[in-house]
Structure formats: structure tokens, C-alpha cells
Amino acid sequence: MSVQTMESQFQMVKIQLDILEAKQSQHPMMIVSTGNFAERGTVTELYGKTYQSVWHNFLSYVKKNQLTSACYFRIDILTEERQISFEQLQNLIRSVKRNNYGDFNFRIEGKQSYSFLMEELAGNAILRPSKEHKVGRNLPNLSIDEQNYRGYIKRKYGKKNANVNLLKQSKIFLFKTKAFYFEQQQVFPIIDYGNGNRVREITYSNVDRTTDLVIEKGAAYLNRQLTDSGQFIYGYFPCYDQSIKGYNSVRHFSSIYALAEAAAYLKDRGMYSSLKQSVLWGVQNLIVNKEGYTVVEEPLKNGAEYKLGAQATAILAIAKYIEVTGDPQFNAILQKLILVVKEKFITKDNRTIHVLDESLTIKEKFRIEYYDGEILFALLRAYGVFKEEKIMKICEDLMAQFIANDYQKYHDHWLSYAVNEFLRYKKKEAYYRFGLDNALGNIRFIEKRDTAYPTMLELLVAASKMIDKLEVSGLKAKIFNQEEEFETVKNRINAVMKKRVLHELTTGVMFPEFAQFFKKPEIVSFGFFARHDRFRMRIDDAEHFLSGLINYRLQVIKEEERWLEQSGLSRYS
Q1: How much is the mean pLDDT over the chain?
Q2: DSSP string of 176-224?
Q3: Pairwise CA distance, residues 53 & 64, whole Å
Q4: In whole angstroms, what is the distance from residue 156 CA to residue 17 CA?
Q5: 81 forms bridges with which residues in the sheet?
Q6: Do residues 144 and 127 lie in contact, with contact meaning Cβ atoms separated by under 8 Å?
Q7: What is the rounded distance in angstroms from the CA atom of residue 64 to the CA atom of residue 444?
Q8: Distance between CA atoms of residues 439 and 456, nearest Å
Q9: Confidence tier at 571 by pLDDT (50, 70, 90)
């Protein structure tokens, strides 16, 4: 490749360097991260007396390492920096409010010169929380993990026995960068979204296109977690490519549900066989006959238990599988799963029992609020398969009990899903009020929440669907005194919904430009993570992200088609 061709490809980089050259920055530096996704990427610093000399060093590096034929590469250009003391660095690290929320890069000058992008710090677990840290309960009180620090210095620089104490004797600089990610002849400017989240630019103008990409790639990621047997790989901690131990019946079946949603949205019939195998594995390995009943069993160290949530997600997954594929193979097992709900998990006064013991008697009346919404939503989906009034009667009785006991206080996305499903069959004022209160009562918190927390989007999409149903319902005038009030609520729900989509994409999707800093990028790329919980990537994380994003896109498409119809246009005109 000629110098002229390289300069053309890296025009944005050259423009940024020229801007910095004009400002006469004191420490010209460029950081290049590159690799092939099979293993953690390599990060290299390029220095020079001026940014022009850094530019020429970069072009030489590109040619020498055949960078343009690499699977990917990222370029970070130092734009500003300030010197701090070791004590200030420690205070900065300790002040980070959540694990892995550090949003700073630092470099040192002394006996050795090292630099660390925030992505390197995160991907190599160089900053660790205290032993007392409990996720979501207290501050992490971060510090430098000496073992991980030494290990990374050895891998990156070939220096053995790096000592954190040497930082005290070195000059330390915090620095900022302007970054670009190159892959398959595409270039993505990297945007800093705060809390350590730096990925490609996502705006309201490209959010739907990006969401479709994430759904396609994310569904492929979740599908890859299915082994040949039909059991999922439960999850990873990606810093070490460490598998998450254990398994959970609720998450097995709910992940099948999300994968079935993705297959339907993507019109990918090729996923049907893996869906069938995963349902079959669940039926054969998680469902048992106990005391004459068909129940989902959760093994314990001593014995087993039977959870309403597991029963619910099994019903939900099988009903969705039948809906999407038209395969009636599991109809009989679905009927048996429904039967035990009425006879063992619901009392005569229509209250739910959350956990049964090995003799199918009450172990815990209440464990977690999710179970109630899950079972109502699951039964409504089962009603959609069988259209049996006895199933609808159970649903109506449960809903009456939830309304009477103010279950909207839980702001649970499963309840929102259930109410929206109910409104397909029973359009009652009480259902609308309950569903809207379930969402609006928590909308301020949802709008400001800094974690990805994908169930919040799921709740808002369901609320958006409810408000659309209400708009063409005669009940609208009973619930809203004025049209202006209705429009305010509708606009509020939809605005926060779209804001949450942007927030999820920029804070919880393992885009390849971020995945490159973890141990096995090709395994985790386009998966979904919980940053503050060691970048945890469980199948249920993928499930909730995919369900929310898919239903968001379906809602947007529906709104577009409605607008086109009102305008007398076609989507393809």
C-alpha cells in the first residue's frame, strides 16, 4: 500500500493530528490497538516530538505490521493531559461509584513508561473492588490489583515483576483521547458516553439501524450459547474467559423465549431446530412428574424445590415456540404445566404460592415479585395457543387479586407484559390504569438510571403498546380528562423509551471495539453485559436485552406503518 493510499484511509486521524499540532500539545502520543478476535488485542504506544512525527511513525507501523489487513484496529490520539500525584490517583480510583465505572486513562513516566486506556484497566481487571463490596449495595472502594497489574505489564511490555509501588516514584498523567475504530474498511468514531463506556457513535438518527444490527448479532450470540444437547452455556466473566458456574431453570426457559422472539423478528427459520432442541432438553432434564403433577424441578444441595417462576417461564417458552414454529409436539406437556399452576401454585382466594417443597406443599408464599407477573403473562400466552376459557378465568382472577393488592408498586416489567397481553382480549379500564401506573410510577427513576438495566426498557415498550391501544379505545376519555393530558403521557413514555434504547446500546452491548480488550473477543462480541457486576454475561442478560430491543423495533415499525397508512403512502413507495 502506498503512503498516499494510507493517508487517504486515515484522513480523519490526520485531521485530528493536525488540529493538535496547531495547539502544540506537549506530549504527542498515539495508541494503536489491534488483533484478530481470537485472543485479547495488542495495545502499542507510538511517540514523537511532534504530532507530525507521530503521524509518520504511525504510517511506518501500519506498513510494517500490515495493519490494514488486520481483522480490526483502533487508534487513540492523546488530546489533553494533566499531571497528578500518586495519592490523587488512588483517591480517583477509590471515588469510582460502581465497579468498572472508571472513566479515566493514565500513563506514567519514570524508570519505565507505561500507559493504560480505561478499556485496558477494565478488560484486564486491573482495578478491583474491596472484599466487602456487594454489587448494588455499597461502594466498590477500588484499588489496583497488584497481581493483575504485574500480569498485564508482563504481557504488554515484557517486563517481569512490575511493582505498583514504583508508581509513587514516577510522574503520573491523566489523559484523554480521540479514538477511531477500523473494521472491514469501515471507520467508526468512538464516543465517550461516561462511566467507561466508549463505543461507536449512536444517535437518534441511526439508533434503529444500530438496534437491528445488535438484534441480529445478539441473537446469533445467544444462539451460539446453545450446545448440541440443547443446554445453554450459562455465561461468562469475560476478563478471564471464565465460565459462570451453576444453572437455573427460569433462565433456561426465558432465554428460549427470547431466542424464539428473535427467530420470529429476523424471520430466521434456521433457528427453529436449535429452539426445538433447547425446549426438548428442558423438558427432559428440568421437568419431572411429582406426586402426579408435571413440574419444573430446581435441584438443591439437599433435595429440590419447585418455583412458580420456573413453571411460568417453561409455559412461556413452550407457548412461544408453538406460536413461532407451528410445531404442536409440546402441546400436551404445556397443558400439564398449566394444570399444576391452578391446583398447586394458586390458593382458593387466588393468591400465588411462590415455592413448593419436595412434597409439593408450601415452602415460601413469597420469594420475589417477578414470579407473579411471569405466571400471569405465561398463562395469557398459553391462552393464545389453546383459547380455553378456563385458562382465561385463572388469569382474570389473578389480575383482580394483583389490582386489589396494588401490585403496580413493584413496577415489574413482567406485569406490564401481562397487562398489555390482557388488553388483546379484555379491554377494561382497571387494566389500563394498573398498567400505566406500573410504568409511570417509576419513570423518573428509569430515566436517570445509569446501569443498562434492560428490564426497564421492556416495561416501557409494554407501556407504549398500552397507550397505543388506549388511543383508539372508548375508555381513553374515562382515564384522561383532556386530550392534552393523554398526549403528555404518551410523549413522556415514548421519549424515555427511546432514551433507554440509546442508553442500553451504549452501556450494555459488547461491541467489537470494546470486546477486543477482553480475553476471548470472538466469544463475547455482540453479547450483553452487566458492567458493574464484573461484566457478567449470563444468558438472561442476553434474554432481557434482546426482548426489549426486539419489542422496541416492532413498536417503531408499527408506528411507521400507521403513519404511512394515514398519509396514504406505502413503506416501499
Answers
A1: 95
A2: EEEEEEEETTEEEEEEE-STT-EEE---TTTHHHHHHHHHHHHHHHHHH
A3: 16
A4: 25
A5: 175
A6: yes
A7: 53
A8: 9
A9: low
pLDDT at 294 (0 to 100):
98
Instruction: State the Cα–Cα distance between residues 497 and 551, nearest whole angstrom.
Output: 11
Over residues 22-39, mean pLDDT: 88
**pLDDT at residue 189 greater than cutoff 90:** yes
Does the CA dihedral 271-275-281-282 come out positive or negative?
Answer: positive
User: Residue 86: how many CB atoms within 10 A of its CB?
Assistant: 17
State how far the Cα of 92 lies from the Cα of 86, in Å rounded to an integer.
10
518-554 pLDDT, tens digit per residue, is 999 999 999 999 999 999 999 999 999 999 999 999 9
Determine the Cα–Cα distance for residues 557 and 534; give it in Å rounded to an integer.
35
Written as nine digits, the cell of 184 is 472491514
Tallying the residues shown for the chain, one arrives at 573
**SS3 state of residue 332:** helix
Helix (H, G, I), strand (E, B) or coil at 239: coil
Phi, psi of 485 (to 5 degrees): -65, -45
Rg (C-alpha) for the chain, rounded Å, is: 27
CA distance 72 to 116: 20
Is the Cα dihedral 365, 355, 304, 134 positive or negative? negative
Cell of 300: 438443591
Structure confidence by residue, pLDDT tens digits, 217-253: 999 999 999 999 999 999 999 999 999 999 999 999 9
DSSP 44: E
Contacts of 244 (CB under 8 A, 6+ apart): 234, 235, 236, 237, 536, 538
Global confidence as pTM: 0.96
The values of phi and psi at residue 114, to 5°, are -125, 155
Find where cell 407473579 sits: 372
Phi, then psi, of 374 in degrees rounded to 5: -60, -45
The closest alpha carbon to 525, from 507, 534, 537, belongs to 537
Read off the pLDDT band of 3 (50, 70, 90). Answer: very low
Question: Is the pLDDT assigned to residue 321 strictly greater than 50?
Answer: yes
* HSE, side-chain direction, 13 A CA sphere, residue 145: 16
Helix (H) or strand (E) holding 404: helix 389-404
